[in-house]
Each structure stands twice: as structure tokens, then as C-alpha cells.
Amino acid sequence: MRLLTSKQIITTEAYTLQAEPITSFALMERAAGHFVAQVLNRFQSIQNGLMICGPGNNGGDGLAVARLLHLSGYRVSVYMPTTNKPGSPGFEYNRQLLPPGISILAGTPEDLSEALPQFDWICDALLGVGQNRPLTGWFAQLIEILNQANALKISIDTPSGLFYGTQPDDLVFNAHWTGTFHAPKIEFLMPETGNRVQEFEVIDINLLVPKDLEAPNWYYSQPSEIAGMLQQPQKFNHKGSHGHALLVTGSAGKMGAAVLAAKAAIRSGVGLLSIWGPFGERAILQNTVPEAMCVVQPESPFVAGTTDLTLYQAIGIGPGIGTHPETIQSLLYILQNATQPLVLDADALNILSTLPNWETRIPAGSILTPHPKEFNRLTGRQMSRREALETASHLCQTHAFILILKGAFSAICLPDGRIHFNPTGNAGMAKGGSGDVLTGILVALLAQGYSPDNASVIGVYLHGLAGDLAAEKLGQISMNAGDLIQHLPNAFLQSQKLKKHPKVNDI
Q1: What are the phi and psi torsion angles at 177 (to 5°)?
Q2: Digit-coded pLDDT (tens) for 164-193
Q3: Radius of gyration of the chain (CA)
Q4: pLDDT tens profile 414-431
Q5: CA angle 378, 384, 390 (to 5 degrees)
Q6: Pairing, β 48-53 against β 75-79
Q7: CATH of the domain at 291
Q8: CA angle 370, 375, 380 (to 5 degrees)
Q9: Using CA atoms, how far apart are residues 95 and 57, in angstroms rounded to an integer?
Q10: Are both 121 and 75 inside the same structural domain?
């Protein structure tokens, strides 16, 4: 799913009106109908609501939603700004269609505050995607009062006050749920602004996007897209067909990282797995991951020395290896000699950050998986998510590797300039070991022949989906990294079920 800026969404709406063709009023009615369907499905217990409608087309959407909810049996009141100026054509059109049973409230924001306790839900249709500056004056006063109301708060398309340049101290309508049209707004996916959107749902209103539209090369992964990229095991496959991966992981006292990464790789379909780890800790691996083979250097409590890299289709390195001088030499050996794709995580990234011109040492097609602090160490400075995306994308395009900026809506920056935002995952995954699980998933997919681009997008999606399944069963507080591995099989199964298979009669 392609992401668009606010200006490009307006262009897309205009193009849809001409190309479909459809009137602007009919498109507004379509959007309102889809929005109401989601509200009725999600919030069945709401009764008495207040619609806040601004004078633009977002307010027109709100008036149409109020009418449709009223016709569905809900009690709805509408508050509109008191002004002598007419609203947009869509606003005025829908104002004329309001049935008599809908109460119209007017007056100042202070007048409205006295009436708020009677409403159990408030819908924000004050401002739309055309907003490009912070709220001031009457609008700011109104939103401040609405935010204090003890009611369910929902927004149509985007919470009023929120736009790409919103700053942390700017006033924004505090929506519990936002039904957003066509695709997520880019500001929903940034930590600087996305924390203002507690939950959102994309509502498809069948907009037609011009083929020549110049839009950011940004995408939002969809379940059907992931299903389409997944490979299916073939009848005559053998373990060699599913690849041989090497995990360079672990050191004395940090073997948990090795175990998590190895178990995740096994659960992600790799045919053979070898683990290059410390000699003295090999019993931990062979007892906990009997499916894996061990590659060890005698008498070393950490990864050291060299090994034959030509046996493997993919190599993952970093979880729990530490930063011992001998381990650094082993990492440099891999970077200099590997011809297969690499996954670099955790201590491998910490080591890289100490090396001059580290980005020139990374083989093309490698995948780096830093969390925010690791990325700051790599770049040598702290930056906002927007700056990080620009920097990461530039590095990937210049040096032909992939950077996965981990966090909410993890961003996968690809060498061709595309950035894929991942929709799965939750705050319960923000615990030690979750990144080790991702490393295991990625190296397993690479070993099976997935391209680095596809392995990154699929791996991050399935990692997050496993986290969502774990949270459903265990809750975000109690779930841990090992639970992600336990739910990986269901994550794969859920995604595979979406893949379309030909019917016998169609072959």
C-alpha cells in the first residue's frame, strides 16, 4: 500500500472524481458510509454522541456520518462553528440533508463544555488533511475543551491538529480511534506525532491513484502482499532445498541470545542450521536446540578465529557475541570474505560503530537491524525518526544494503529507495531478546532463497504478527521474547492461508 502526503491525497481525490467518474457529493457519501460501517461494527455500545464539524469537507464528512448514524438508530447531536461565512460545498450540501431529529448545538466552546457530560462519544470532524499549521484561537480552545471530556473520542480521517510538522507541544484532538481513508497518514507512523493516534483503521473508499503521481517511495505492508511473497514447500524438497544458515552468536553469560536466534531460525523453515559460538557453552546449545549443529573454537569463551563460510547460504551475526578483540577480528573476517547475504544485529552493530567508514565494509545485500540507540551510535548523533529515515535511506541507496529501523511501525529501508513501514507488533515486544528472534527469522528466510528485500519485509511482518498473537493470548505485560517463537508457526499459517492457490478446475 503506497503512502501519500496530504497534498497528494487531495490530488488523488480530484483524479478519482474525473476518472471514475463520480460527483464529490457521492464520494463523500461513500466515505461516510464506510466510516459508519466500521463504527457500528467496533463500537456497538455507544448511544448518545456529539459530532464536531468544521466548515470544510472534513466537516461535510462529519455531517454525512451524523445523518447515517441517526438513520441507524443512534442519538446524534452536531456542533458547528458560529459564522456568517458559508462552508465548503460538501459541508453546505450535507448540512441541508440533516434530518430534523438531529440536535444542532452552537455557541462558544465554553457553552459547549457545559453540555459535554451528557455525551458518551465525541466524533472529531473539525479539520481534515489540508491542515498544515498548529491550532490557534477558536479551534485550539475547542480542542482543549474536548480533550477534557470523559467520553470515547473518535476522529474522521485524521485527528484535528495533527499534520506532518506537528511538534510535541502542539495541541491535537486526543482520539482513541481514527478511521482514516485510503491509507495511513505518514504522521501516524512517526513517534514524534504517531503517539497522538492511539489506534487507527484504514478505510478503503476506492480512490484511484494517478499512475504519474509523484509520491514518496513509502509503503505500508499489507497481509495479502506478505502472503503473495511467501514461498510454499514443494513435494520433492529436502533439507538442502531449504538452505543452510550460520548464526554467529553467543558468549559466556550471553547464550540466551544464541538460543533465541537459533530457535527462531528453526521455526522459520531453514533446512540446516549451524551455530558458531564459544566452545565452553556448546552444551547449552546442543541441549536447547538439538536441531542445530555447533561450530566452535577450542578453549574460547567467545566467538573467535575463522571458519569455512562457503558452506552456508546466509549468515547472521551479532546477538550476544560481545565486543572482545578476537570477536572483532572474526567479524572483520566475515565482512571481508562472505559472498552470501548477512544479517548484522546487536553487538555486530556496536562493533561497526567503532570502525571508521563502517558503511563501506558492509557487503551489498546485507541486512542491518538497529534499534534507535544502535542507529544513533552508527551515525554518531541522535536524530528524530524523520531524520533517521532520510539518513538510513541515503546509506542504503549509496551502499546497497538494507537498514531495518526497529520500533513501532519498523521501517525497512531498501537500496532502491523504497521504505516499507510494518503494521504488526506491539509494545509487549519491547523486551530483551526480541531482536535476537528477528535475526533468526531473517537469516532463515535468506538461506531459503528469499531476496534480501523480500526477506526483510516478510521477516519483520511475521516477527510482529507473532508478537500480536502472543499478546492476544498472554497480554503485553507478561509476554516475552520466547513467546514470539512459540507463536511463529501460527504467524506463518495465518499468512499462508491468505495466499491464493489455483483450483483444480483452473489448472
Answers
A1: -150, 140
A2: 888 888 999 999 999 999 999 999 999 988
A3: 26
A4: 999 999 999 999 999 999
A5: 70
A6: parallel
A7: 3.40.1190.20
A8: 155
A9: 11
A10: yes
